[in-house]
Specification:
Layout lengths: L2 E3 L5 E3 L3 H25 L2 E8 L9 E7 L4 H12 L6 E5 L26 E8 L22 H6 L36 E2 L6 H11 L2 H9 L13 H14 L4 E2 L2 H6 L13 H15 L8 H6 L1 E9 L5 E8 L2 E4 L12 H9 L2 E3 L5 E3 L4 E3 L1 E10 L2 E7 L1 E4 L4 E4 L9 E3 L15 E4 L6 E2 L20 E2 L5 H5 L1 H7 L3 E13 L2 E9 L6 E5 L2 E5 L1 H5 L20 E10 L16 H25 L1 E10 L5 E10 L4 H11 L11 E7 L4 E5 L8 H4 L10 E6 L13 E10 L4 E2 L3 E6 L4 H12 L6 E8 L2 E5 L14 E8 L13 H11 E7 L5 H14 L6 H32 L7 H6 L15 H24 L1 H5 L12 H5 L20 H6 L11 H15 L33 E3 L3 E2 L1 H4 L4 E8 L4 H12 L6 E6 L5 E4 L13 E7 L7 E9 L7 E10 L4 H16 L8 E7 L2 E6 L15 E7 L12 E9 ...
Parallel strand pairs: 3-6, 7-8, 10-20, 11-16, 28-32, 33-38, 39-45, 46-50, 51-55
Antiparallel strand pairs: 1-2, 3-4, 5-6, 9-10, 9-15, 12-15, 13-14, 15-22, 16-27, 17-18, 19-23, 20-21, 23-24, 23-27, 24-25, 25-26, 28-29, 30-31, 30-32, 33-34, 33-35, 36-37, 36-38, 39-42, 40-42, 41-42, 43-44, 43-45, 46-47, 48-49, 48-50, 51-52, 51-53, 54-55
Helix pairs in contact: 6-14, 19-20, 20-22
Length: 1393
């Protein structure tokens, strides 16, 4: 624009130029509007971009809608802006093409020319570029705030957080979650973090500090591993070297430290142990020194970290000084002196206090060798050498003697960036001593002045490699102190601050470290590395804002500095980090090796990231159409055809069904619903079919099979699956289901037509019943109502019947159809194991016992009844086989499964109200009824004798294996389980084989599989009997119902079969189909013909998943808690009556390794005395256990687990004096002499003598006391042992019987000879029978043993206590010591100690 001068000599636009400028602006705007209009008119391209660079974004989609004329470069710019990435750090590729060739981001080709389709969705994938993740756009500036991060980068941080807010890290760690992918991209700082294994933050802080120390890192790189000397896995220097290489060259955000800890000899439990970082530093340096022996690095730790100081004591009268030289690796600085209320406010103050001498006077006077008397003296420390790397430990952890707990001091203590140590080399303010002697800090024995009792001696005055020499032993040398300071700079610069956040009980460590390359401070907090400022360092001083007086530490921040590391400022010695090109050859090889390993890991990770993992189901034709489950892992670029082949091999279908008879379909496991079939999608990638790679899917896949002659039917979205069961009212049968697919908007009339086509029934007379939930039957009778309105869902079950019977005219709930369906929904199948021993044999035994007792038995009757019952049972077996065969011929001929052939007769249910019209069925039913009548008649006749005697008990009662081997299998537990409702499709699914549909899938098998899986995982609970053990008032003594009439409940027994292979014996198993609403009493009555005795003469045990058996005794309870294929065991023996209890009797063997031995099962009754129960026990234990006892030579006593308790006296009455419960347990103890316990005031104590001379415990002996007097106990012990009363000492055993304790501990650990007069007070509390008391002779000396003898005894005792399992430790848990094992494990740590 041309300018002209104005009157004020100012340049102004030439006249007319303003209008021309405005016109040009208008033209420019018009041009842009024209472009916008053209863009609006041209076609647009919709791009959907999936970001696959991060697991957090892989399920998200970015959408960009651009004109078709947009260039590829502009597309990349828009995607970068929307995703927040820098341009050039990512690639875009087609998402639906297996070979993903990146699009050219610098190309000017338009989208339409590049193959993008306007008006359609174009799928793209955003991928890594050159194997590195995209950089965030915020990284472009290269600057950060005080925390080193801007907001966007803070959101990218993923990892576990410190337990509390860390002062040195600002707000660097705001992300609440952790993802493995977060450790795969390197931090924007260029540094790599370390993964926290669990509680290894202290280790990570120290490792990062060592890595950032140039001198240590370079020296470690110069060391070369020799494979011939040791294994790489156990070599600590090699694993540290490898870790440092990864920290310097890896592209990950963080790397693992497991290889390093493994070289320490640590297992995974060590990762959960919290340790002190200063303790770790000491232990690690010791381990490195051991590993570096005879190498160039043998003295590396001393050269870098070791200093020297003088510990002296000077007499204040003669000036004589005794001293010794000590070495140190760190200087501990006190924050708050003991007993003081003030704290040191700075490191300089603490250092001054460290070298400040203390005066020894008064009672603490020092004995001077020169004065030959105790004199006042001054004791202190004097620095002689400072290390090159100075480590200061701030002693923040202390012990509070008021609360007797460890505490952390959070008081403020400042530390400088540069620390001048010259003022602290000598604080002596008096004249130099006239003479000096080198002693052990004032000890009487003097030694050489040049001896160093703890480390190498520094004999020279000049600076040596391991530190700065400040030794000055004479006044002349101390006078040259300023010159030494001028010659040798003692200025140290701070480069590492290890911060602790938390309390004395636990917390979190992280390190703030300054890089010697750029002088920038960084926060190394496990996985996270970020820039920080000096202001953040100052926040680690500790303390709080404002003054709170003495209690300021309680309100201070718990995040503060714990260890400080300074480096000497000496340009001649300060080194830089080695660059990769300057690495030694062995390090270059290691770098290449780790790089290849990392690339391989990245490729594997890429495969994992693009792999779809989804549940896979299949009704396996080779496994009786059982539903099996697996997991299919398929790459997203694999086609559906390839995925089908993978599933085919995974499910092992080769040789069972051809591959072309299989297909994958979308499946809903929860609803057992086939959602969708993928027709014409064989070449579509699985990633597109499944909706991308996801951590979990809302659906599953099912590999569907068919026969070669069948055809797959299509499954479309919106369809519902209906399982149609056809009901035959004539024969009372319900056939297996047929699958029909319908739409929810179809009417009932249309649905009936669909069913008619599938089943061949007449639609006009069809009745359709929908089962919506358990036993909820609904008749669908409104023709115009839709399926959705009737309550249909994804998967449904209906029953259909089509006949002209008068039953259609009845109300639905009164109809025969409803009764049949109701019975169908409540019938379950039980596996009943009959007794192994035949009833006749048991009757003979019982009759023989009765005859021996002088009573009139019915031996002849039972003997005569034995053969007919057996013969009828065998005949019944043959008849049932014939009946089953006839019904199989009439049943579902379509089924080819084994399950159908076994139990198909169950579908033909007998009607209680209607006769069967079918000739064969009626004949079979009549034969079956005739057999049952004959069995009942024979059983009634055979059991007349025993049944007439209600108190008859079988001495040969059987016990299950679980009762013999499991002491507590039935303790205080009743039998019945009251559980939730049962699946209403049990009957049909349990006993009918599936009809093979054209699609190869039937809902029957799916439902059956799901139900069985649910029953396997169902948690079972027990009911405990409170008042009585079972027989309720509505039942008589024989278990018969007192009611005049009971409703009919369905009960049917199918073919018995031999269970020898399954149960390991010759017991017979029968299958019982029964209405689960039947009571236990009615069930037992129906079982009488098959057991051969009356219901009162056998017991019912329910068998659970772990093969434990529990007796069912509540006769009024129904079988509603049972489900299909539950097992029941029938055992012969008298069932319990009201007021009776099943009791398990165990023998007490106090001096045996196993003091508890099972004897018999018996029955105790309410009101029975202990003597009566003992009389009934005598014949049982004699016959079953071969124990011939007299009634006065054994007792019964309380049993609590394996602990003997109260002795039951003969006159005690059960339920009055002794509480008793169902499945009670009691001890039987055999006595060596007649019973001494006659009164409740007496006390039975188990005593055991300890002999220290022989290191031996003698056997238990019982002592019966008349009172709780300690004197009486001692007198009794004197009588049985012969120990004089004045020498006898006793102690109560710890823990539970038998109170086992090691002979190496008993002499010191027990509370011997307590100062009490009675036994029922503290600390004895002996108030009941069964207490254990140890006693000894106080004059006996403990055996002297050699080390070998002690070692042998330790092993012997450890083995003994391990077997008994009775060892009780009373010592508090000790903190696990930090150790590094040089031999590879903790088993050989004695040398390390």
């Amino acid at each position: 624009m041309e300018m002209v001068p104005s009157e004020e000599n100012q340049l102004v636009p030439k006249e007319g130029m303003f209008w021309s400028c405005r016109q040009s602006l208008f033209d420019e705007m018009k041009k842009k509007f024209s472009q916008i209009e053209n863009a609006a008119e041209e076609p647009r391209v919709l791009c959907i971009i999936q970001d696959t660079t991060n697991s957090k974004t892989v399920n998200e989609r970015l959408t960009v809608n651009l004109p078709a004329s947009t260039s590829l470069s502009k597309l990349h710019e828009d995607v970068a802006h929307k995703a927040g990435y820098m341009i050039g750090t990512f690639d875009l590729a087609w998402g639906n093409i297996s070979e993903m060739t990146p699009l050219d981001q610098s190309s000017a080709i338009t989208l339409s020319e590049s193959g993008f389709e306007a008006g359609k969705r174009n799928f793209l994938q955003l991928t890594d570029r050159d194997g590195e993740q995209p950089q965030m756009a915020s990284d472009e500036s290269g600057t950060a705030d005080s925390s080193g991060l801007d907001d966007s980068s803070q959101e990218r941080f993923i990892g576990p957080l410190p337990r509390e807010s860390t002062g040195g890290c600002s707000n660097d760690y705001s992300s609440p979650s952790y993802s493995y992918s977060s450790i795969l991209n390197k931090s924007e700082t260029g540094y790599v973090g370390l993964v926290n294994q669990a509680m290894t933050c202290y280790l990570n802080s120290l490792l990062q500090t060592l890595f950032m120390t140039p001198e240590f890192r370079n020296a470690l790189y110069n060391w070369e591993f020799e494979e011939s000397e040791e294994d790489q896995v156990s070599s600590i220097p090699y694993q540290l070297q490898r870790l440092f290489v990864l920290l310097q060259t890896s592209k990950k955000r963080a790397i693992e430290t497991t290889d390093v800890t493994r070289s320490f000899g640590w297992d995974s439990s060590e990762a959960w142990q919290q340790h002190d970082v200063q303790e770790l530093c000491r232990v690690m340096f010791d381990a490195l020194e051991q590993k570096w022996k005879l190498t160039e690095q043998a003295d590396l730790i001393n050269q870098l970290y070791q200093g020297k100081l003088k510990d002296y004591v000077r007499c204040l009268e003669c000036g004589n000084e005794s001293w010794r030289n000590d070495t140190y690796l760190d200087i501990p600085l006190v924050i708050r002196p003991f007993g003081a209320s003030q704290v040191y406010g700075s490191v300089e103050e603490a250092l001054q206090a460290f070298v400040q001498p203390e005066t020894l006077d008064g009672a603490n006077q020092y004995f001077c060798e020169r004065c030959k008397k105790k004199c006042d003296a001054r004791k202190g420390l004097r620095f002689l050498h400072f290390p090159y790397l100075l480590t200061l430990q701030l002693k923040r952890f202390d012990f509070d003697y008021t609360t007797m707990h460890r505490i952390k001091l959070n008081d403020r203590m400042t530390f400088p960036d540069e620390l001048d140590m010259s003022p602290f080399m000598d604080v002596e303010d008096e004249k130099s001593p006239q003479t000096e002697s080198c002693t052990d800090s004032g000890a009487e024995n003097e030694g050489s002045c040049h001896s160093d009792q703890m480390s190498n001696d520094f004999a020279t005055d000049d600076c040596v490699d391991e530190g700065i020499c400040l030794d000055s032993t004479g006044s002349a040398e101390r006078g040259l102190k300023p010159k030494v300071a001028e010659t040798n700079s003692l200025t140290f610069e701070l480069f590492s601050v290890m911060v602790h956040s938390g309390s004395a009980a636990g917390g979190h460590y992280y390190a703030c470290i300054k890089s010697f390359t750029d002088g920038q401070w960084y926060s190394f907090n496990d996985q996270h590395v970020s820039k920080i400022s000096l202001e953040d360092i100052r926040k680690t001083y500790g303390g709080s804002t404002g003054s709170r007086g003495y209690y300021s530490s309680a309100f201070a921040s718990s995040t503060n500095a714990y260890m400080l590391i300074y480096r000497l400022k000496d340009p001649s010695r300060n080194t830089k980090y080695l660059d990769p090109e300057d690495f030694p050859e062995h390090i270059k090889y290691l770098v290449q090796k780790e790089k290849e390993s990392e690339e391989q890991e990245k490729r594997q990770r890429e495969i994992e990231r693009n792999t779809c993992k989804i549940k896979l189901f299949c009704l396996h034709p080779g496994k009786m159409m059982t539903m099996i489950e697996n997991k299919l892992e398929v790459h997203k670029d694999k086609t559906l055809r390839e995925a089908t082949q993978m599933a085919y091999k995974l499910l092992e279908l080769e040789g069972v069904v051809p591959l072309d008879c299989c297909r994958l379909v979308k499946y809903d496991e929860f609803h057992e619903y086939l959602e969708l079939s993928y027709e014409d999608d064989e070449d579509t990638p699985m990633g597109m079919l499944l909706g991308g790679v996801k951590t979990s899917y809302m659906f599953d896949l099912l590999l569907e099979t068919r026969r070669p002659e069948q055809v797959f039917q299509p499954y479309r979205p919106g369809e519902v699956m209906v399982k149609v069961h056809v009901v035959d009212l004539k024969n009372d049968t319900i056939v297996p289901p047929v699958s029909v697919r319908a739409f929810l908007n179809q009417s009932i009339a249309e649905f009936k037509q669909l069913i008619a086509q599938a089943t061949g029934l007449c639609a006009e007379t069809m009745r359709v019943v929908l089962e919506r939930c358990y036993n909820d039957l609904r008749l669908l009778f409104v023709p115009n109502k839709t399926l959705k309105a009737e309550g249909f869902f994804r998967s449904n079950k209906i029953f259909v019947e089509s006949s002209d019977s008068p039953d259609q005219q009845l109300p639905f709930t009164d109809s025969h159809l409803w009764k049949l369906l109701d019975r169908h929904g409540n019938t379950i199948r039980l596996m009943v194991l009959l007794p192994e021993q035949l009833p006749g044999t048991l009757f003979n035994r019982t009759a023989g016992q009765k005859a021996a007792g002088g009573s009139d038995g019915s031996f002849e009757g039972s003997k005569a009844a034995r053969k007919p019952v057996e013969a009828i049972l065998e005949e019944s077996t043959e008849k049932l086989k014939s009946l089953s065969y006839q019904q199989q011929q009439q049943g579902s001929s379509n089924s080819d499964s084994q399950k159908s052939s076994d139990t198909s007769d169950f579908e033909h249910i007998e009607s209680p109200t209607q006769e069967l019209d079918s000739g064969s069925s009626a004949s079979a039913a009549a034969d079956n009824r005739e057999l049952e009548d004959r069995i009942q008649a024979a059983a009634a006749g055979g059991s007349a004798g025993p049944a007439s005697d209600p108190d008859n008990q079988y001495a040969g009662e059987e016990r299950s294996d679980s009762e013999v081997h499991n002491d507590r299998s039935t303790s205080s537990v009743d039998s019945d389980i009251l559980s939730s409702s049962h699946s209403s499709d049990t009957l049909c699914n349990a006993d009918s084989g599936p009809i093979q549909l054209a699609n190869g899938l039937d809902s029957h098998s799916i439902t059956s599989s799901r139900r069985s899986k649910a029953h396997e995982g169902k948690k079972e609970t027990w009911d405990t009997a409170e008042e009585d053990s079972g027989t309720d008032s509505e039942y008589d003594d024989n278990g018969k119902s007192k009611a005049s009439s009971t409703p009919f409940m369905y009960f049917r027994v199918s073919e018995p079969r031999n269970q020898g292979e399954a149960s390991g014996d010759a017991q017979k198993c029968i299958i019982v189909h029964v209405d689960k609403r039947i009571t236990l009493a009615a069930f037992k009555q129906n079982m009488e013909p098959f057991v051969g005795v009356g219901s009162s003469q056998f017991k019912v045990f329910r068998v659970y998943a772990n093969n434990q058996e529990f007796e069912s005794v509540r006769l009024n309870e129904t079988l509603s808690s049972f489900s299909d294929d539950n097992k029941i065991t029938i055992r012969l023996g008298r069932a319990l009556k009201k007021g009776e209890y099943r009791v398990k009797v165990y023998q007490l063997l106090v001096n045996e390794a196993e003091p508890c031995k099972f004897l018999v099962d018996t029955v105790f009754a309410k009101g029975m005395t202990v003597r009566q129960s003992k009389e009934e026990l005598l014949p049982q234990v004699k016959e079953q256990c071969k124990l011939d006892l007299s009634i006065d030579r054994f007792r019964l006593r309380k049993k609590t687990w394996k602990n003997p308790g109260t002795v039951f006296l003969d006159y005690h009455v059960y339920e009055e004096d002794i509480n008793i419960s169902s499945n009670w347990e009691v001890f039987l103890e055999v006595l060596d002499e007649p019973e001494k316990m006659k009164s409740m005031s007496q006390l039975a104590v188990l005593t055991r003598r300890w002999s220290p001379t022989h290191m031996k415990l003698e056997a238990f002996r019982e002592v019966v006391l008349e009172s709780s007097s300690v004197e009486e106990l001692k007198e009794k012990l004197c009588e049985i042992s012969g120990i004089p009363l004045e020498n006898l000492e006793f102690a109560k055993g710890r823990g539970t019987f038998p109170c086992d304790i090691s002979v190496l501990e008993i002499h010191q650990d027990l509370d011997w000879n307590p100062k009490v007069s009675t036994l029922n007070v503290w600390p004895l509390y002996i108030c009941d029978d069964g207490a254990v008391v140890f006693y000894r002779d106080s004059t006996e000396e403990l055996m002297d043993m050699s080390e070998d003898e002690r070692s042998v005894l330790i092993k012997k005792e450890s083995s003994r206590l391990l077997k008994t399992g009775h060892r009780v430790s009373y010592s508090p848990r000790k903190e696990k010591a930090l150790k590094i094992y040089l031999d590879g494990g903790p088993a050989k740590d004695s040398a390390q100690d």
